[in-house]
Write a structure and sequence with these properties.
By secondary structure, the protein is mainly β. The chain has 5 helices and 58 strands. A hairpin with a 4-residue loop joins strand 34 and strand 35.
């Protein structure tokens, strides 16, 4: 075929101008779950996918793996064909020949590939139902890039001195030459009776030799024996077909950029799907997947839904192997690709209707709506604080605000936002306990540490000098400056906790125990210091990385790299036992703990979300589904996580900073169990309770003084908790006794009675005489009263 040069150039210029007007927008993350299919670190090439079976070429048996092996030359290595069956979770080696087998394709029980065992490339087939291997071609030339549909196999063939498309019919054992043109026809694909390929087009009198050959995508209908050329392009590759829709990769007429193009054979209409640095398209039903480099030197995997005209990304930024994937293939609602480090990932779309995650019941609330940066939230009771850049107008080239941050607070009870600091210096790394807030700032270029009393509105300087990551518990504040230090607000004294010359950072405190990250043993470990006994203890001894601890009562949690990815671990001081909390092969980090609940950031879905583990019921649940938790992460594990300011938990409330609106905002999730629980229906006719079934309001706010809190909790038990009269009387008596002791100033005894109340409630929970929600609510409120009573 010959094409008029002037017409081609004119169309090319017009098309480039059109492309310049549409631009390229970053896709939103797709909804679904990502899993690792193949954990081998060997090189993987050329994926294909059918049903539950994934096939690929694998270099694990090649002694000297070659990164740039060409599957189109006769350079022989030892690549093999492997298959993974998702239904059985079993991997199988299909070929064991010492030569190279590559570019597999699969349909139902049959897979085909190109094979170099005979000194040239041949097409071979393996039938899974019969476990039989068959040689399809026997020509001494090269047959490569096979595709299969039903009983028909197609490939490109150079036996005639150029590349032609051939077909083999398994039902009739006949081979047919499909194309006879003297130019090259290559990259065939097949669906039903239609075969598509790339066809060379000669351009007369080209200005430059590069422009002398263009490409058409051609379609051949086996039923009618007719060939139809689609629109031409400078260069075209990798056509794929599903029913009447063809997609391919095409270079623009300037030769600078690649794009993904779609053509509907039924309507004879085309559509540009993606432009600039694209590749490797595949299609199934109404979904197209491909790779694209957004000028960040990584191949992101994207998907376009034809029915909804929406584009989403399967490899999201800010997570493990962020934006890295090649050779995408799609079948149904599952997409597979090869990450940069080897192996295979699979993304299962939520539309698959599979049990993707166990979602936690609760309510999500956006706390900040300002368009600037709000980050590093912490929460205590009904107050959330964070650092806020809304008063700093300048933005640098990276999109980050320049200048200073202020400390802001949101009061959930009053539904009111309050600016805590308003001077021109930079206030960061804030934390809160009770009515005290701590942070450090840089007035006049000199670092200083301050506290703020919410009740009195008094701001007090407690330290001069640089510090990192201050944390507060009652009247004790800990921070790091290579070593760990503590400041006692009651005595206005500062104490050095650790004195090792190595690096110590990320302290956390609860009661008399201070924990931190420590590098003295050549790796990062978790250490602890007990203030009452003046003893230091090494918590972790694994030679990998353990960092960013948090502590509540006798439980310490941290992120841990011993398994080759970041997991969450816990150590119980009472039992001296270590427990692995997460076993997912992706990354979990930045943990926080309160009571029986541990929360963390998790990238198993391909983007950062929040998950929670409830120790009391041994259950993991998913908190967020937006995939927009704002974290700092790079391309590899070492740059993932390591940030303790991402999220926090108090009672049944979880807070985090979230980038779904284009800037980091503060969000909160309230567990349904954190609300006043409903009446428990598990009672007998002899049970006593409110005759009208009245449910009380939440009068147990920790804003109340201890006496009021005990009374409110007592009223909750009297009205809400329907149980045996003796059990109810016992609970009420414990609260009355605690109240009496507190009124007489005998705080120790008051706390003892409240702990007895907690013990009885937990016992009733185990016996299923009270619902888990009711028990959790009463225990949480009793612990809040204890924290108020215990002396600072």
């Amino acid at each position: 075929m010959k094409v008029d040069k002037r017409a081609a150039i004119f169309f090319g210029i017009f098309f480039v101008i059109f492309l310049m007007t549409i631009g390229n927008a970053t896709a939103v993350p797709a909804e679904g779950t990502r899993t690792r299919v193949n954990i081998s670190d060997a090189q993987v090439r050329s994926l294909d996918f059918y049903g539950d079976r994934i096939v690929w070429a694998d270099a694990r048996n090649e002694e000297d793996q070659v990164d740039n092996l060409s599957f189109y030359s006769n350079h022989d290595e030892n690549w093999d064909i492997y298959m993974y069956d998702l239904s059985t979770s079993m991997e199988a080696q299909i070929t064991s020949n010492n030569s190279t087998q590559s570019n597999p394709a699969i349909y139902d029980d049959k897979m085909v590939w190109q094979d170099l065992r005979n000194g040239n490339w041949d097409i071979y087939m393996y039938d899974l139902s019969t476990s039989a291997e068959t040689r399809i071609t026997s020509s001494n030339s090269n047959q490569t890039l096979p595709a299969i549909y039903d009983d028909k196999i197609v490939w490109q063939d150079d036996r005639n001195g150029n590349l032609d498309v051939y077909m083999y019919d398994l039902s009739t054992s006949t081979e047919t030459q499909i194309t006879t043109n003297e130019s090259n026809q290559s990259d065939p694909a097949i669906y039903g009776d239609k075969i598509v390929w790339v066809d060379e087009v000669q351009i007369d009198d080209a200005i430059d030799p590069y422009f002398s050959i263009n490409n058409n995508i051609c379609v051949y209908d086996l039923a009618t024996s007719t060939e139809t050329p689609l629109s031409s392009g400078l260069r075209s590759w990798n056509p794929s077909i599903y029913k009447d829709v063809v997609v391919w990769e095409q270079e623009d007429y300037v030769g600078n950029n690649e794009m993904i193009v779609m053509h509907n054979l039924s309507t004879s209409t085309g559509e540009l799907i993606a432009y600039e640095r694209t590749g490797s398209p595949d299609i199934y039903e109404d979904k197209i997947v491909w790779t694209q480099d957004f000028w960040d030197f990584r191949s992101h995997v994207l998907m376009y839904n034809i029915s909804t005209s929406t584009e989403t990304e399967l490899t999201a930024e800010g997570v493990y192997d962020a934006g890295s994937g090649s050779y995408p293939a799609i079948y149904g609602d599952r997409v597979v690709w090869v990450p940069s480090h080897g192996g295979i990932y699979m993304f299962t779309l939520d539309s698959a209707g599979l049990p993707v995650d166990n979602r936690e019941n609760g309510t999500e609330t956006q706390i900040t709506t300002n368009g600037s940066f709000q980050t590093e939230p912490t929460i205590y009771d009904d107050k959330i604080i964070w650092q806020d850049a809304r008063n700093r107008e300048n933005i640098d080239q990276s999109g980050y605000p320049t200048g200073s941050y202020d400390i802001y607070m949101y009061d959930l009870s009053a539904h009111k936002e309050i600016q805590i600091t308003n001077d021109s210096s930079d206030q960061v790394s804030s934390d809160i306990y009770g009515d005290r807030i701590v942070w450090y700032e840089w007035p006049n270029g000199n670092p200083e540490v301050y506290t703020y009393n919410i009740s009195t509105s008094n701001k007090t300087k407690i330290h001069d000098g640089v510090i990192n990551n201050p944390r507060i518990y009652k009247d004790r504040i800990v921070w790091s400056i290579n070593n760990i230090y503590m400041y006692n607000l009651s005595t206005s004294t500062e104490v050095q906790i650790s004195n090792n010359t190595s690096y110590q950072d990320y302290p956390a405190i609860y009661g008399d125990n201070i924990v931190w990250t420590d590098s003295r043993d050549g790796n990062l470990d978790i250490y602890m210091y007990n203030l009452s006994t003046s003893t230091e203890t090494q918590i972790t001894t694994n030679n990998s990385i353990q960092r960013v601890p948090d502590i509540y009562e006798d439980r310490i949690v941290w992120e841990d790299y011993r398994n080759g990815n970041w997991d969450i671990y816990m150590y119980n001081l009472s039992t001296s036992t270590e427990t692995q909390i997460t076993t997912n092969e992706f990354n979990q980090g930045s943990p926080s703990i309160y009571g029986d609940r541990i929360v963390w950031v998790d990238d198993r879905s391909g983007r950062p979300d929040i998950y929670m583990y409830n120790l009391s019921i041994s259950k993991e649940t998913r908190i967020t589904t937006s995939g927009s938790v704002w974290i700092f992460a790079g391309d590899n594990d070492d740059e993932w996580g390591g940030n303790p300011g991402v999220l926090d938990i108090y009672g049944g409330r979880i807070v985090w900073h979230d980038s779904r609106n284009g800037n980091p905002d503060i969000y909160m999730f309230t567990l349904s169990s954190a609300e006043v629980p409903p009446l428990d229906d598990n009672y007998t006719d002899g049970d006593e309770g409110d005759e009208n079934g009245t449910q009380p309001s939440d009068n147990c706010s920790s804003e109340l003084m201890p006496l009021d809190g005990i009374q409110a909790l007592k009223e909750y038990v009297e009205i809400t908790y329907r149980c045996h009269v003796n059990t109810k009387t016992g609970l009420i008596d414990l609260l009355d006794t605690s109240k009496c002791y507190y009124e007489k100033g005998e705080n120790k005894e008051a706390v003892f009675m409240l702990n007895s109340f907690i013990h009885l409630v937990e016992k009733m929970k185990l016996c299923e005489q009270v619902s888990a929600d009711e028990a959790d609510y009463m225990v949480r409120k009793a612990k809040e009263i204890i924290e108020q009573i215990e002396p600072n």
